[in-house]
Structure formats: C-alpha cells, structure tokens
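Task card 7
Instruction: Convert sequence to structure tokens.
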Amino acid sequence: MPRRPIRVTDTERTPLLSALRELRERTHVRVAFPEEALREAEHAARHPRMPAYDATDLPLFTIDPPGSLDLDQAVFLARREAGGYRVHYAIADVAAFVTPGGALDAEAHARVVTLYYPDLRVPLHPPVISEDAGSLRPDRDRPAVLWRLDLDGDGRVVEADVRRAVVRSRARLHYAGVQRAIDAGTAEEPLSLLREVGMRREELERERGGISLNVPEQEVVRRDGRYVPVYRSPLPVEGWNAQISLMTGMAGAELMLRAGTGVLRTLPAAPEGAVERLRRAARALGVVWPAAMPYGVLVRALDPGDPQHAAFLQECTALLRGAGYVAFDADRPGALPRPPDVDHAALAAPYTHCTAPLRRLVDRYASELCLAAAAGAPVPEWVRAALEGLPGEMVRGARRAGEAERECVDLVEAALLRDRVGEVFDAYVVDVAETRPTAGTAHLYSPAVVGHVEGPADGPPLPLGRRMRVRLVRADPGREKVGFVPA
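Output:
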C-alpha cells in the first residue's frame, strides 16, 4: 500500500513532536546503530568493492525531492538508431558495502526497511553509506547495478540487461525544476525524453489494466500557534520517473521467472466488497463513478489537487492492501516451488522490488538474482540461503512500517484538531461496525481526517457511505485519538 506521505514542519518542542518521540520509544524503534555495525559501515565506506566495468562516461542524473541524500537511482535516456529508446538505469549497489553475515548485514535484517516519521527518517543503513558512500550523488564514482533497457517506439521493453559498473552521476535534479523545464520546452534530451518514455509507459499500463495512485503529500505547518494541513499534488514528472522504476522491476521479474529463481512482489486482486465500499465513498464525496466505468479509468481521471478527489484517492489505497512477497527456487523445488499466480494486481504484470536497496532489504537480494540471471551465472549462496525467510522478513518490516504510519497519522490528526474540540464538521461514513451499527469510521471533508464516530447504543444506525455532521469530542496527540459523535 502506498505510504501516506506526511511531513511536519516544526522547529519548537511541541506536544506533537514530543508524542512522535514517545511513539518511537514506546514501539522500541532503534534510531541509533550498534557500534559494531557503525564500524563496519565506516570501513566499507572507505573500501567498497568496486566493479571492473567502467561506465562513468554515461551522463546519468538523479531526480529526487529537495534535500534527499539517499539517492538510489540515476537515469540516462537516449533514442536508438533503430528506433525506440535506450534507458540506462543505475541502482546503488549496497552489496558493495554490506558483507553477508556481518554486523551491518544483521542490523539491516533487523530493520528491514527505512521507517518514515513526519519529523525524521530512521534509515535501513547508516548514513555514511545510505547518504554518502553508497548514494549516487553527483560527480563521485560509485559502485552500481547498471540496467540497460531497450524499448520499441511504444515503450515496450525488447531487451534487458544488467551488470555491475562504476558510474558517476552528472547532476542532482529536483522534481519541480525538471517539471518547469519540460513544461517550458527548455529541457534538452535526455531530460525531455523522460516525459516521452514516461507517457508511453503510462499508456502501456492502461492497456494492461494496471493503475498507479497519485496520493497527495500532506505537510503540517504551524500558523499562529495552530497546526494547519497543506496538500501537495504529485507532479507529472514524478509519475514519469516512477514508470522507469516500475519498468525495471517488471524486467527484473521476467529475468527471475526465466531463470527459475527469484523473489517477487505480489498483490492479489481486490475483493468485491472493497470495491463496493469505494463506490459508497465516491457517492458520499460527490465523485462521479458510472457503473460501467472501470476503477482504473476513474482513478486516472481524478485531480489530486481537488480536496474531494484527494480524499477519495486516499480511500483507494485500501484496494492495495494484502501485498506481499513470494520466493521461488528451481534448484530447491520441494521447498520453494514457483508460485501459480505471479502478477501484481495493481501493475497487471509480474514485478519485483529491485530499485531502492538503500531503503529496502529485499532489493539487495533481488539485484543479485537479476545479475545472476542476466549473466547465466549461479545465484550466490548467501542469496539462496536467505530466500526462504526473506518474504517473511519483508512482511514483518512492512507491517512495522504500516503500524508506525497509522500511529503517526493518528498523532498528526489529533494535533490538527486539538484546539477544535466541540466543533461540528461535515463528514461521510466510510465504515460501520458489524456488531454495533451506531459506531464506525468517519472521514471529514476538511481537513481530511479519519476518526472513530460513535452514537448512543439505542440511536439510529450510521448512514454508511452517506454524508453526515459530526461533533469532535476528543483530540490529544499521544493521549487520545480523534473521536466524534453524530451532531
């Protein structure tokens, strides 16, 4: 499920920041790294395992939000003489720094993923690697897993190859600046090709029946002593850049499936009940969803800048729940057979996570599997030994990240409404308890807050999927989640 992006801009010690720190302490999130892991990281940063192949002539560039230092990917796009496109995509090579079985490796398996809190980030790897020696920062030679993807004129991958290489990014670009240059027509190739290739890949996604959600980012700022939510809609260039990553993940999955050994990211199709719940939410929010219109067509027509559409997009993330990982190994058919269903429902294609190794444990292993498959070489034993347990580790890490996200959302929402207890809000009911129809969940129209609503036991049932007025009765970050009663 896409992470709900929330940032808190606050420099003072406030109840919200204190509650976020207490949350990390309460859930035993270890921000600092063990001394032995730090020593290994410092040594590895000075002495990485550099590949023999030199690809520093490629004028790669990165595109990330301002201030990002953990740069996993760098890209270069060009036209092919025979027609179509060639995409070079460099991925940070974490295996150049992490020794299997070492303290740094053990800590990565304990953390599994980078955890994102509204006020800080708890990284998977020490910053000396994730933000410096392993990051694809400009004008520095870096070890990388370098993909070469040849596309036809429609953007379909016709040939994929991957190998280790030394790369050197030429520029660190930001989404807003790239979007301005493309919109103004001043972006030169290869930058202008990002739009061209990205849009072709989006069209192929539509043809497959896949869907990408553009969930707005929420920033919480303090104005006149009160927290105020500010929403930022994703820029088109963010979607185009994401398509390069998705394309690489799908190419990696195909390599693994052909080789017979791999680890895939999977997602089952959404149950009919979840779709019907979304239809009720659409009706309550005034989102027009004709009965014959497929879900994917509707989502692409929504405007994330519209508050009602933004609220509906957030509800749409419920259809992406149930994602997991599955490993398979042709050399160990009894233990790890090939799964019968390998598609990721949101992408309508097989897919693997292999483009964010600085932030996700599984990507380091997926890169090794793709490298072995492309070279026709044996899978490293340390990778094969970890395969069986890797899906469970990733699910555990994703569950931990999801729980942290939900707790953070509760804290931020309580901070937003802390000074508004007693006020009445317009809302719609998104869920009703089966055993008590007078209790359920309400989604405010503004601000986009979700909270528990409960009427008297002998009162009327909540109007599922309908508009209603609710009164805020509690909101105290770190102590009480937001709660409403029918008004």
